[in-house]
Amino acid sequence: MKTTDVLDTNIPPKPTDSASLAIQEALSRIDPVRRPSVAKRAKDVPVKARPGYLRAATGDASPRQAIKAFCSECVCWDRQEVTLCTALACPLFAYRPFVGKRDKHTATAPDTEPLGDG
Known about the structure:
Layout: H1 18-27, H2 35-44, H3 50-58, H4 63-74, H5 79-83
Helix pairs in contact: 1-3, 3-4
């Protein structure tokens, strides 16, 4: 019987660029059940925001960094949209990043309507 090399398609190729290496290193510290979801999402995160997202996803972020990652993801990674947030019922509204202390509890868009049924 002859032994042949078989390519295992379940083993992902070794990453070569630094961004892929960072993702793979972070994924190695995540619960295997969450790993596929986090890996898929991390690929769509802009390179500039990816380190913060991965710190939050792995539990290595401070609460403030995790909120920043959450809010940024919620508005498709657009920093200005975080400051213009209209999700008035969001429990993180008062904690959202990129706004001054004075503006934390006020909506910046006067034409917003409260979220809810109806």
